[in-house]
């Protein structure tokens, strides 16, 4: 049985061309980029070339890119780095952020910071007006994600960035789920810090970057060598960084084509469910093109996911970072309340590399069959 992978929002398969670059770099780019000899300089050039690709992809300057081990480190770096540098004890975030943001904020609360967790509406949308109303004289940071990883709702980051102009408040966005899917320009968004991870767009795991706008003060998380202009100690992962750069180049060239394909997959999935008489409701509004989160009344999510898995379909109930947890999705709780049925019957299907319309149609057909059996 050939599996149908519909969990690309959790992680994505590495693109074959990216894997080739990664494999080759493992054998050839073994020098330490901080070494002054030829082998080291070769690795340094690879880093510089990759940094240029990342900066161009978001409209930034090369020195504004800091390599990290992924999105979690980038989020933590942004939050703790600002807290250590700025006077003031108030942070604004939303109730639907990734746990890399939420748990970092909770850690700061234990250290005496005051964190405002903004609510969202039933579509999973943060209101810019709520950000404005929550601002205080001691607010040092606003951190609002660009696109939600569970329901896909795209947040009004540019609108929030506009209202923060002229203030001393630092603005961070977690763009991990949106990078490579949406066009991103840091100037248009008005952000000071932006987090990205490679494995969401067919790159290797364990690598990402943090955009740090020039002039934004940030304390380091790691101490050791003077890598990344003394901002992030540790010898850079050159093979992963070069492979990540290749993934970004491919993504940039194919972004519009992929978005159209993903919207087509969504239509196919919905149409078949409707044709089969399966009642469902979409969770979220204005979602990222590759995310389809639906509520299926009358089911229990655990047994439904097990049956999907047995049928060869990989899907999820939300963030993979909470796999194995019995707690309901914090995103759906924020949208619908702690007692809502959606917490027990919502499934996220997410699309990406390697899928075809035929495979998506087959997955939807099997989903309908399982629903009729279990509901």
TrEMBL record:
Its EC number is 2.8.1.7. This is cysteine desulfurase. Keywords: Iron, Iron-sulfur, Metal-binding, Pyridoxal phosphate, Transferase. Gene3D superfamilies: 1.10.260.50, Aspartate Aminotransferase, domain 1, Type I PLP-dependent aspartate aminotransferase-like (Major domain). It comes from Planococcus chinensis. Residues 4-360 form the Aminotransferase class V domain. Belongs to the class-V pyridoxal-phosphate-dependent aminotransferase family. NifS/IscS subfamily. InterPro entries: Aminotrans_V_dom (IPR000192), Aminotrans_V_PyrdxlP_BS (IPR020578), Cysteine_dSase (IPR016454), PyrdxlP-dep_Trfase (IPR015424), PyrdxlP-dep_Trfase_major (IPR015421), PyrdxlP-dep_Trfase_small (IPR015422). Its cofactor is pyridoxal 5'-phosphate. PROSITE patterns: AA_TRANSFER_CLASS_5. Pfam families: Aminotran_5 (PF00266). It catalyses: (sulfur carrier)-H + L-cysteine = (sulfur carrier)-SH + L-alanine. It is an enzyme of class 2 (transferase).
